[in-house]
Amino acid sequence: xxxxxxxxxxxxxxxxxxxxxxxxxxxxxxxxxxxxxxxxxxxxxxxxxxxxxxxxxxxxxxxxxxxxxxxxxxxxxxxxxxxxxxxxxxxxxxxxxxxxxxxxxxxxxxxxxxxxxxxxxxxxxxxxxxxxxxxxxxxxxxxxxxxxxxxxxxxxxxxxxxxxxxxxxxxxxxxxxxxxxxxxxxxxxxxxxxxxxxxxxxxxxxxxxxxxxxxxxxxxxxxxxxxxxxxxxxxxxxxxxxxxxxxxxxxxxxxxxxxxxxxxxxxxxxxxxxxxxxxxxxxxxxxxxxxxxxxxxxxxxxxxxxxxxxxxxxxxxxxxxxxxxxxxxxxxxxxxxxxxxxxxxxxxxxxxxxxxxxxxxxxxxxxxxxxxxxxxxxxxxxxxxxxxxxxxxxxxxxxxxxxxxxxxxxxxxxxxxxxx
Amino acid sequence: xxxxxxxxxxxxxxxxxxxxxxxxxxxxxxxxxxxxxxxxxxxxxxxxxxxxxxxxxxxxxxxxxxxxxxxxxxxxxxxxxxxxxxxxxxxxxxxxxxxxxxxxxxxxxxxxxxxxxxxx
Amino acid sequence: xxxxxxxxxxxxxxxxxxxxxxxxxxxxxxxxxxxxxxxxxxxxxxxxxxxxxxxxxxxxxxxxxxxxxxxxxxxxxxxxxxxxxxxxxxxxxxxxxxxxxxxxxxxxxxxxxxxxxxxxxxxxxxxxxxxxxxxxxxxxxxxxxxxxxxxxxxxxxxxxxxxxxxxxxxxxxxxxxxxxxxxxxxxxxxxxxxxxxxxxxxxxxxxxxxxxxxxxxxxxxxxxxxxxxxxxxxxxxxxxxxxxxxxxxxxxxxxxxxxxxxxxxxxxxxxxxxxxxxxxxxxxxxxxxxxxxxxxxxxxxxxxxxxxxxxxxxxxxxxxxxxxxxxxxxxxxxxxxxxxxxxxxxxxxxxxxxxxxxxxxxxxxxxxxxxxxxxxxxxxxxxxxxxxxxxxxxxxxxxxxxxxxxxxxxxxxxxxxxxxxxxxxxxxxxxxxxxxxxxxxxxxxxxxxxxxxxxxxxxxxxxxxxxxxxxxxxxxxx
Lengths: 420, 120, 478
Hints:
The complex is a heterotrimer. Chain B has helices spanning about 35-45, 80-85; strands spanning about 1-5, 15-20, 25-30, 50, 55-60, 65-70, 75, 90, 100, 110-115.
């Protein structure tokens, strides 16, 4: 049995930032477990630029952003294992993992940070009717083939879903010589960032069809075409609006799902909204000493925010290892309602929180000229005007410790949208 | 006076910008949250540019391709010239982040550099 | 010159091949697809029926009950996943009770053992998620579930080990009858043989009608299914059918041997014998019906939907035997549900017919057992550690949803009739069959397939033919 203070599951952006932060906060024996052959996670295949403006004040590509963190990790002499798959985490924090060189490993940790990231929603989960030929890929699979291996998975492409990876892949495949015919989005608004619509679609005259979906896939061996149809407000296809696009490839960019199989097995309580763990202000799950950060916790738009969150998780895990759990104060639940789908964290303890704490959340629809409001008990504390909010863009509010301490007796904090 | 509505691509916030033009002269930029937004707007209406990212082949490396980018932004109209120029480029591993893969790509005066380490 | 040419490497053809490989016969299986188990055998309910459904006195009833009884022994002999989980036919309305009793009577007459009618209390104890409307059920403890790929592949592999030739990507186009042999015309040339076995699934009528004046007709009857995530495992533990009645025919809800939940099928008669496309209407119908026998079905946990074609013969009966007006041509047609269950008995019956016709002697060196692909999850920690020391590829997880290692994939490729495509690997190992539906593992599996088969990754297909995954390289047409 190996022994470490903190074991971090996943060597992507979240795991790297958490490890570096934990070391900075005084923990020596840290181990990062990564299943791939290199550190950096999904950033390795995100070769487009736009990463790091918040963190490094410059615009980097995914591999460059990862490279900066890997350099810091190496400099801090933090241990890591590559090609190592975690199979199980027990409640008493014994991690079972496996790799070619060492076989099956058992590692006792004092604290565990979950940083496994997320996966893409598949065609099956979307229940798209039609044949099941070759030529249907999730956008991320295509991204790996094109960006890491130099292979083109198709020449004439239709993309379903306007998530960021789909938009990015529309540009990537275009630049590598494929023809991207159309991007269809089921919802009346895009799930991706506005900048990506501008520079990935508009720059190349790729049409974006909102409120459209794929209703049939043609082709028995390889995709020969797909039929798009407009959908009504209940997202049901409207008969008579069908339009056939000949193509050899259908890319799917229809959302990401946190990858929490290990967390569930461990008994971590999950949010049905985010499909990620429910955490307190220290990013700690219901299992003491088990923390979560990054896309395993909730899907982010920006890696910079993943790094920030992971840094906090690393810090709190370090505090837990060095000082034990601070048994002070009480956890006040944060209620998400009226257009706000969820918040991370789910509870906050005013005694344990930092001077300022960022509450991140997503809204359930596009709202214009609304207010983001925070209530301590029944009293409205924050009332911030937002010209536009959309599900595709994560929102945040900042709570102040000093202010929250003044409301010692409240039972809930509420985050909601108000129209006035 | 002409008005143009833009979405800033400077960062993922995607600010909605309004540019007021007098002929080809930018009179004002509003809607931006930071200086980058103003710079972007001024450029986008006069001389739009983009950073181009792509891959080139790698010989003898652990990966078959290495990701690259233009060191600076290049005129938007030259994007395809840039990727075409990279078509037949093969570099030999090891490659390091920042290595110049191609100087003065397609006559833009901008270098293409590697954005990833690829070992042997 | 072959003694026997079997058309079709589905579960019936492969079962026949395996049974015949006991004898001193020269046998060839021709298959139009690139692998075994590519038609009806790969897309069905994966149920081992108890045998109460088929009409009394029918061949279907006889072979169903026989096949069911053979299944457990065979699953051990040939190492494929099978579980006798029991089945329930749920009656949702007192008015339908006579139908339930009639079904019970029919089952008893068919020779189904341990069959009994249970009342709601016992039903709820067996299946806590049963619908509130359920009043009683026919309980068949002998009902089971099987891995249809596992069984089909096991038959075929074992047949191959015992000398049967498999010729893939070979489509039969016609026949020539000579004095004492047949010439089977194919897209890959002629095959001479003494006997032909027609186990061509939905195409069996086409081949039958080429040689016989007594025409038969098979309708491809499409069934749409939804497969739910393994996290739904345990939602039901028995196979749950709906008693046809006031609420219609319904669809079944069953666990699979791998811990998923399967819901389906619809029944839509179509023309196209390759029409395995799902439709919106089909999936809608399925979802609407799926919740009738159980409550709170987690249908949103669907990881894939698919459609299979039942080879529905107009008389709804298995047609097995030598054709009177085409001697030496043996039909194995109309094999629809309970065809999977009956496969072992079908194999035995057809082999018996040919043995009697040929007087073939049994081989002395017949190998009756076959070892499936080693699943390291079944090993103890110590055994697994030892395995990794010897074969480190068993520590390299390729499919993370199902935890399938490189070792298992290599085994699937290298063994007799090994996998050549992504789907071939998937059916043998489950790599790509999990919740991400191969999004993560397919590039890695392609790499392994290309390396093992000694070809460029761009040659690797999803399922043979033109189903290529990679169509070019970056910038190749710029």
